[in-house]
Structures are given as C-alpha cells and as structure tokens.
C-alpha cells in the first residue's frame, strides 16, 4: 500500500461502535474513491463529510470520502481562507433538525447537525452554505463574513413519506387505502380542559358540538352522521392503541344536567402528540363491534433521540359570556304589566284612577317587589309621578355571569439515544366557570419509556395519571338551575334585601342579606343558592400500558400489550335546609361512588416482507381480551340539624341505599393483510370476530370485515411527463362494522326488582321490570367509500370523497299492548342510512420568502335518512322531533306558526282539516303538527390559515355550519306574552300587538294569558346557519442562539390567543352563541351554561 493510500485510509475514520454494516459500507466507499483513476474520480471531487455526536457516549465519528488527487498547495491555500461558522438548523415549528447535511457549496467541506440541531464548520468567509435533509426543501445561505447563522428548513411535501396512525399500528400514507384525517398537537392548543373542543372545524366529516361552557363538560362527536337511534352515536376512543371509555355513565348528575364532566377531560391536551380520525370501514373495521361510529386515535407524546430536554408551558386565560339575551329593564317590565292590567280594568268599566291604583298593585305583586321608591309610581294617565324613580334594576345575567380565570402549567422532560427514549410530564390545570360555582381542576402526570433490551426484544411502558375536581351548578331540573332562574327573574327583583331608598338591609353582623322572594321560583336566589348548595365530583384515573415486542425473524414480530384503565369517580350533592330545593327535605345530602376497572390484553403477530423488488406484503393477526368490572353505590340522607353539615351521618333520616355491579367481556380475533405492487397498486383486507357478553345467547358473536384498494396514478409511466403532478391517488373501500356502545349490559335479559311498588299481602314483592330478548344482536353497519387524493406543484393539495353508510338491525323500543304489562321491548328492527361528500383543500400560498402563508379548507355535506321503522312514526316529545321513514332522525315535528291576527292580536297556527285544506286557528290544541325540516346542516366545515414572518406567526380558524334548524327553548320561555305570570321577558315583547301596532309577529300581551302563544311551534324555530370565528393566535418564537441565555435556553415562544371570538347567524338568533343539534330541543337543555369567549396569554420555554 503506497503512502497516498495510507493517507487516504487515515481520512476514513469510523466510530468503532457504529453498526458493522455502516462501518463496512463507509470503508468500502472510501476505498472505492481511492482506487478510481483520476479521470473516473471526477464525480467524487466533492467531499462528503458526516460528523455525528453520539449523545450516549459523548464521542464523535467522521465518515468521509474525498478526492485524493489535489495538491498540498491547494489544500493549504483553502485552509488559510477558512473561518469557523456555527449555528442551528430547525424546522418550521422551531424543533431541531438532527442529522441535517451542512456543506460549503462548491467544495467537499461539510458536516451534520447534532442532537440539538447545531453545527460548527470551517468555511471560506464569503461562501454559501447548502443545507439539506430528507423530507425538507434544500436551503442556501450566504455567509458574508458572519460567524453565526440559524436556518429554518421547510417541509418538502413532495418527498416526505407521511406516516398515518391506523388500527393496531401505523401505515405509510402513500399505500393507505382507507379514509383518515390527522390533527397534530400544534392545532390542539386551546384553553379548554379537553382536546375535543379544539377539533371543531378541522376535520372533514367530523362534527363537534359543545353547547355547555361548564369547565370540563362533554362535547357531542359525530363522524359521518348518526347511525343509531337508541344506542350511542359517539365514536370509539383509542389512546396509544388502547380502547377507552368516554361516556358519562360514571356521572349520576349526567341524568339531570348537561353540564356533567367529560371523561376525555382526564387526558391532558399538552400530553397529546396527534389525533387521527378513522372514518371509513377500511380504516376502522379492525375495531369490529365498536367501530360503527368511527374511531378517534389519540397518540400521546414520546421521547425523542437527543440529550435530555426540559420544556415548560404555561398559559393564563380570561373567559366571559360574549352575548346575552336582551331582557326588559325594570321600568319596561313594570309598565308592560301595568298597562295590560290597566286596560283590562278600563274595559271592565273602572275609572282611570281606580284602574291605575289596581294596575300598580298588580305590577308590584307580579314582581313581588316594588322597584320604585313610591307606592303609586304611574298615575291614571299612564305617566310617571313626580319624584318617582327606579331603585331596583337588577341585570340578572350580569349578576350570574362573571369573568373567569384559567391557569395551565405543564413541564416535561424528554430525550433518548439509539436504544432508549423517555418522556415524563406533570401538569396542573385550573379553570373557573363563568357562573358562580362552576370550576374544574386537574392534576396530571405521564411517564413513557421504551428500550431495546436486546437486538430481538423491545420493551416499554406508558403510564398516565390524573385527578380532577369539578364543581357544577345545582341540579334538580330547570326549576333549580341558577342560570335558568336568572333569565326568568324580573329586573325589579333585587339580589339583596333593600329598603325603599334602594339601600341594602344589613343583618345583625352588618352583612348584606340575600333576597329569596321572587315571582317564579319559590324561595330561590340564583346568586345565593350556588354558595349554599354543593354539586361536586372527583375523578381519579390511572391509565397504563406495558408492551413487549419480540423480533422472531427478519420481518416477523410478536407484540403483547397489557393495559389497565382504572377510574374512581365520586359525586357529592347537598341541598341546604333553608332555601331552594332543600326545605322540602329539611336539608338533603347524596353520595355516588363509582369504580370501573377495564383491562385490555392484546397480542399481535406482524409480518413484513419486500420481495422481488416490486412486491411488499404486510400481514397481521391478533387476539384481544377486554373486560370491564363496574360498581356503583348510592346513598343519601335528609333532615339535617344545621346547614353546611354535608356528611350522611348528620342526617336524621337515611334514604334507601342502592348498589350496582356489572361486568362486560369482549373477546376478539382479528387480522389484516396489505399488499403493494410496484409502489403504486395497494390492496388491503381485514377481518374481525367479536364475542360480547351483552347480547342474547343466540347472537354472542359477530364478524366484521373490510376490503380496500388504492392506485397511485402519478406513478404510472404515462404520467411521468406531468412533472407538476406530485400525487394523484384513487381509493376505494367497502366493509362492515358493529355498534355495541352505550347499551345496558343486561339488555337481553329478563330483569326483576324487589320494591315497595310490588305488594303481596303486607310484604314487598318482586316484579318483572324488563322482558328478555335472547335474539338481541349487534347493530350492523356497511360502508362504501371512494376518494381521491391529489397534490401538485409541491404547493397545492387536497382530497375529495363520497361515502354511503347503511346501518341495520338498529335497537328499537317496539311498543307493546298494555295487556302485556310492559310498554315496550328492545328489538333489532330499524334501519338508517348516512351518505355524503367531503372535500379538503390546502395550499402553501407563500412559501419561498420570509413571509409564508398556508391555508386549509374542508367541507362536508351529509344526509341521514330512516330507511325502515317498524310500526307507526315515533314522536320524540322531549326533543320536539319525530322518527319517520324517509326522513332524518333529527326531523323537527311541531305546529306551524302562522303569525299574529292583525285584527285582534291573537296568535295563529296552521290547521289542516280532514280534506287536507290549510287554514289557521287561534286555539293551540287545534293546531296541526307537521314535519318542519331537520336539525342537521346542509353542509359544514372549517377554514384555517397561518401567516408567519421571521418568528411571528398568526393563525386563524373559522368553523361554519350552513342550513339546518335549531329551536331556541330559552327564548320561548322569555317570550311568553303573559302566559307565565311574573316571569321576565325579552325586549322583543315590547313589539307586542296593540291597536296602533298591528303589523307585528308578537301577539297581544295579556296578563295571566292562557292562549299558549309560547307553546312549541315554528315561532321559535330558526335557520341554524352560522359562521364562528373559532380561534385567533398570534405568537413570536425567539431566534435560537439568543445571547446571553442560549447555553441554557434552547427555545422560547410567547403567544396570545382568543377562542370563540364571534359568531354570525344568518337568522335573527337571539340566544347564546353555541348550539347543539344533538341535544334536547335542538339547543340542549334549559340549564346549559353558555360557551364563553376566552382570551389567553402564555409562553413555552425549552431548556
């Protein structure tokens, strides 16, 4: 070996502990470069240098190949002109790019970035640095004498092979045959306790409805419509591969109060990496009997390669109700009452003076308080007497709503090396509600670690713990709701007892005294009761998973996962003995304790093989055992000696305690095969068989399957000439799934109950409460999906899809004759269909300049239709809807409002006679009920955009819903036209019919009216079209390497954000800004807390 060869080999230094394959290839490349003759070595005249830092051992390796034919003089000259330049390479989110190639353009001089994205390189003082990394666009930077430079790489959507999370694993987006959409953690940042509210408007085909502003409350999720009538329409939630329960069965209060806690709120959004929504059968059917409503895959954060990094996140928010009902002032309400009574007395022949005295007395009686400082404030001519003034004008909405504070603190540490990675976090979340007693607190922690135990074994564990506390508004129905009563209390009712001059009356201790006298709710005060009563819950959740992944053979792995999910939920409710609900019981306390231990044991065998270059085969087979052990205990007591004694032992009379324990088991066998030919033709099939304990003995098992195919058209030779086309993929799938969600665990069995309702002689007996149905089986669903994905000019992208989802064997309460002793029996009898189109579009509008602009848009148009319904139409009275064949299950059913009779001011409704002729009637009971249209929109979606410039980022998110109907039940309560004696009224009531105002839609106001003009009708049915400005966020990311803290502080970001800023309604909507089409009455309940507007400020620090 000659001297030049020896010198060349000296450059081929390879880190001694790198894998043998890499060492061998590196030495081979060096020797190849050396052995080439000079004329053949031209391609090697650029030096390829790679310098990597081994974070575990603190050593470095150098891999290089260079032209050995240069002269010593040229090398010396190059060294004399060089200077050291250092810097950091990050992506568009500010995260370090590890292993990026940094090369002095036109030379062989280069290096790679370390685990923090940093580099240091000796270069010519006026050189250009060329930076490249797989999945990102190349960048070139002119040094111009600088010694420090920081570079941001932009994602190359053309070359990046995106990985999508799927059932029991991951898949490359390019070969995926199903329909799925992913949202990463950067788009889940909001001040909400739960991540679900952040998804609104971000995923085509997904509707997220939240009609309650109670901190920690639940949202309604619908993926491609509603496929069930009586079972749940909520999707299956899967956290890091483990199915979890997200229903509200733990909450007793959920039966009375729409503001109950969401189990999803136990998950800290700051620990979530991404959320993937599986929408079609090909994507979701591997979850079998639980996938009919779609699947939401939640992936939490894990450790990353690199030295330990600590991140701190905090945010503070202020929330307030953006819009309230415009209620009458105290003077307006008094005069409305006074005038109606005055006219009645005058029509009865009384003198103006007598009528005025009687009207003043009536108005004060209706309010139960005189809001004026004189006894007869209005004279016989209807004028205010001299000296009369209002002393009480309480804005009850202003009193009940407050500005609420949200605090969120999170810290995590993560890192890893070639063998082990880890992620540990802790969080504290504290959100006040906009009503007096509402709040939600959460303490959370997470730990994840995975390691390569051996070359053939990988092991890991993921543990999440949370403890949450929720204070809700007082339950017991609308009559006990502080919010509902705040709307119905006239402004003339004071919060505190006052004298005739409007001054508060103090007690013996000098404190203000609450006023409990009002015209609508006996012995109640919306401000005082939340302070005297309790409605609290606590939740402890421990969710864990441990896995072992064995490499049995090249391409063959066996993975076993054990995942326990333990939930302990408790609720406490107390009604004081003096005011509100409590006096009927002389004080009452209730306790509810629930535990649910769910464990999942999953075993999968995975095989991957690429053969003959063009063929790629992925196969998976698995077995899963799932079990839930649920227990619940209820107890209560009444007759307490003093207030604020909450313990049951303090009550003299114990209520009958109750307990319940149930068990549910699901055993599953499943498999999937995926085949790709020539990287362009992709096929997949899956099969799952589930055995469930909740169905009849004849139908314990159900089998579900799917098949899908996709064609990457842009890979065809005839498409190669279209260089502007980056992707054109056609997808097609069909499959089946089932629904067992939300069912009572013993629905198929005959049940008996021992109760005092069943008397045999002088003793309690046992009665039959539920008919058995051994034939009860799964709700089944079949879905067809066709879609196309496209991307062109490496700038524009999108997808379009059509689906048809047919659901049959739906659980239906079939009515029985009274002679059977039962009103109904649960049977599989109904069928519904959901079908529609989805469109997703996006563009990097500005990308190749310091100013960057991205925009994304999605649209969904979905219809649902009841295809089969045994028996007559079923009226769902508490929702003002009807189930009828050929119509939506959200079809409104009520009389048609025909306006006001201009002659006498009477209300009018449409009446259809026996011959089908349409007329009108002023008698509500004679009005004809008709189908009025569906609550679901014609189409809905979202629009998001992001602008960034040199560290500044501005993002905006709109969510919209077009078409559909919504019923404003609250507005109906405050437009009663005198039907509710002392209840407050909306200002619109001032437009009521009079002899001088005949062209109006508000009937004549009559005290103690009985014409039911406020009855359910289209008078209060509105077009639900709305556009919501969901979020605006402005942030600034400090430049990396900022002195003097750069050695400690690796990154910093400050931001300000606003949520639920503004909602535009097409119709003259009077209510609060958020509506829930899936709730009772199309608005949710009369007790729902409005969703507030929130202004948030915060910062992120990385060390």
UniProtKB/TrEMBL annotation:
Location of the protein in the cell: Cell outer membrane
Classification via Pfam families: CarbopepD_reg_2 (PF13715), Plug (PF07715), TonB_dep_Rec_b-barrel (PF00593)
Keywords: Cell outer membrane, Membrane, Receptor, Signal, TonB box, Transmembrane, Transmembrane beta strand, Transport
GO cellular component, one term: cell outer membrane
Gene3D superfamilies, sorted: Carboxypeptidase-like, regulatory domain, TonB-dependent receptor, beta-barrel domain, TonB-dependent receptor, plug domain
Topology in membrane: Multi-pass membrane protein
Keyword Zinc-finger attached: no
Origin: domain of life: Bacteria
GO molecular function annotations of the record: siderophore uptake transmembrane transporter activity
Major subcellular location class: membrane
InterPro entries for this protein: Beta-barrel_TonB (IPR000531), Beta-barrel_TonB_sf (IPR036942), CarboxyPept-like_regulatory (IPR008969), Plug_dom (IPR012910), Plug_dom_sf (IPR037066), TonB-dep_OMP_SusC/RagA (IPR023996), TonB-dep_OMP_SusC/RagA_CS (IPR023997), TonB-dep_rcpt-like (IPR039426)
Domain TonB-dependent receptor plug residue range list: 179-295
GO biological process: siderophore transmembrane transport
Domain spans labelled TonB-dependent receptor-like beta-barrel: 509-992
Signal peptide span: 1-41
Homology family: Belongs to the TonB-dependent receptor family.
Designated name of the protein: TonB-dependent receptor SusC
Organism expressing this protein natively: Tannerella forsythia (Bacteroides forsythus)
Designated gene of the protein: susC_8
